[in-house]
Amino acid sequence: MTQRLRTAVFISGRGSNMQSLILAARAPDFPAEIALVLSNRPDAAGLRFAADHGIATAAVDHKIYAGREAFEASVQALLDVHRIELICLAGFMRLLTAGFVARWQNRMINIHPALLPAYRGLHTHERALQDGVKIHGCTVHFVVPAMDEGPIIAQAAVPVLDEDTPDSLGKRVLEQEHKIYPLALQLVAQGRLTIDGNRVKSGSGASVAPLIVS
Ligand code: GAR
Q1: Which ligand 1 atom is nearest residue 170's CA?
Q2: Separation of 14 CA from ligand 1 center, angstroms?
Q3: Which residues contact ligand 1 via a Cβ below 6 A?
Q4: Count of Cβ atoms closer than 10 Å to residue 98 Cβ
Q5: β partners of residue 58
Q6: Could you identify the atom of ligand 1 that is nearest to the CA of residue 177?
């Protein structure tokens, strides 16, 4: 097959979304290759999984840098060394500067545990329960300088149940995250998406997002 898109996954911890990307990318016809997993936390559990799967890993500890620009310069150097073409943020809990985001415009995607534009930021499941919404979910989007904004590639919805706690709801959402992130990466890596303002179009006329509501 043609060259696969060289992709880096940025994590800060557990890395379950990273795992779903690595496993999906093992399929021979998957259009992206996970070429690097990078964490800003040296103790991130996900680094071990990536290394065990033969993927290059790097820890760039943000705490030892004087500021965000210096941290990002080290990150960029690693991206250059590994000839990275696309970045997937997967539970990466560091804000990136506008300069870094601009450099990776339309080449960096993120997963967020809510149906954006609702519930940007943290504690999305607690806030959804407090508001009494009946449908919650997750979103994969292109990264822009404003946090948790940017053109939406895929979303999945889940029902909110009477007995839900933030944990049980978060677990149901996470199962969907593990489905839509590989799907979104595949769509981006196939190179057939167009970005029209805030709208991402697949060109096929088909919805790029599974709607999973029961
Ligand atoms: C995921 O739920 C992801 O959507 C969320 O952090 C979790 C990381 O889990 N990301 C954010 O909240 C970013 N704003 P993981 O390390 O197991 O993939």
Answers
A1: 2
A2: 9
A3: 11, 13-17, 90-91, 111-113, 174, 177
A4: 11
A5: 38
A6: 4
Q: Do the strands 86-89 and 194-196 form a parallel or antiparallel pair, or are they unpaired? A: unpaired
Q: Which of 53, 62, 82, 112 is catalytic?
A: 112
Rounded distance, CA 90 to CA 177, Å?
Answer: 10
Inter-CA distances, 183 with 21, 80, 147, 180, 205, Å: 9, 26, 22, 5, 16
112 as an active site residue: the answer is: yes
Long-range pairs for 22-29 at CB < 8 Å and ≥24 separation? 22/49, 22/50, 22/53, 22/55, 23/182, 24/182, 24/185, 24/186, 25/182, 25/185, 28/1, 29/1
Collapsing DSSP states into helix, strand and coil, what is residue 171?
A: helix
Q: Where are the domains of the chain?
A: 1-104, 110-214
Structure confidence by residue, pLDDT tens digits, 143-164: 999 999 999 999 999 999 999 9
CATH number for the region 110-214 comes to 3.40.50.170
Q: What is the pLDDT of residue 203?
A: 75
- Dist. CA 61 → ligand 1 center (Å): 19
Atom of ligand 1 nearest to the CA of 16: 17
Domain 1-104: give its CATH code.
3.40.50.170
Which residue matches tokens 């840098």?
65
pTM of the predicted model as reported, rounded to 2 decimal places: 0.95
> Does the pLDDT value for residue 209 go beyond 80?
no
